[in-house]
Amino acid sequence: MRYDFSPLYRSTVGFDRLFDRQLDADAAPGWPPYDIEKVSEDSYRISLAVAGFATEEIELIQKENELTVTGRKDAKDGATQFLHRGIATRAFKQTFNLAEHVKVVEASQENGLLVISLKREIPEALKPRRIQITAGPAQPETQDNARDEADRIGRRAA
Predict the structure, then answer these.
(1) Predicted model pTM
(2) What's the gap between Cα 75 and its chain centre?
(3) Which domains does the chain have, with CATH numbers?
(4) Which residues make beta-bridge pairs with 100?
């Protein structure tokens, strides 16, 4: 029996292993619609459909491993009478859990899409490093216990 795990990836970015984090399916509402793309090995892109929202009505906040996108439409006076209202203007809040070392690089809004570019930047100290192997016998560090003992006795006498 095969299971479709793709819904588990809808609110996480940068996790390449399935069970790194338990996801709560109810915590990821479907509004606004969005796509998550893996652009390259360490680059990701989130695209949200935010038609009708101005740039200043959308807020992005990254706090540690969490990216929150919030949209609030400015209240307008009731002078406009709609015969049909199909463009949603309701407020939204979408939260994405990011893997360690994933940071927002840039965000732009064009043609009703908010595009957020992310990049995983692993610190040099955490990256694997190649260790060169030399030919010939290994040169173990030798320890001269007799010299260490003489130094210790000499310090006690002084």
Answers:
(1) 0.61
(2) 33
(3) 31-75+85-128 (2.60.40.790)
(4) none
Residue 8 per-residue DSSP state: G
Q: Which two tokens stand for residue 28?
A: 């990821």
Count of CB atoms situated within 10 Å of the CB of 130 = 5
What is the spatial distance between Cα 93 and Cα 97, in angstroms, rounded to a whole number?
A: 13
Distance of CA 6 to the CA centre of its chain: 18
CA distance 25 to 37: 20
Q: Is 42 exposed, middle or buried (0-12, 13-18, 19+ CB in 10 A)?
A: middle
* Digit-coded pLDDT (tens) for 100-111: 999 999 999 999
User: 124 is written with which tokens?
Assistant: 């040099």
61-65: which pairs have CB atoms within 8 A and are 24 or more residues apart?
A: 62/98, 62/103, 62/104, 65/97, 65/98, 65/99, 65/100, 65/102
- Residue owning tokens 């459909």: 49
Q: What is the per-residue pLDDT across 6-51, written as a single tens digit (0 to 9) for each?
A: 666 666 666 554 444 443 333 345 788 999 999 999 999 999 999 8
**Contact at 8 Å (CB) between 55 and 48?**
no
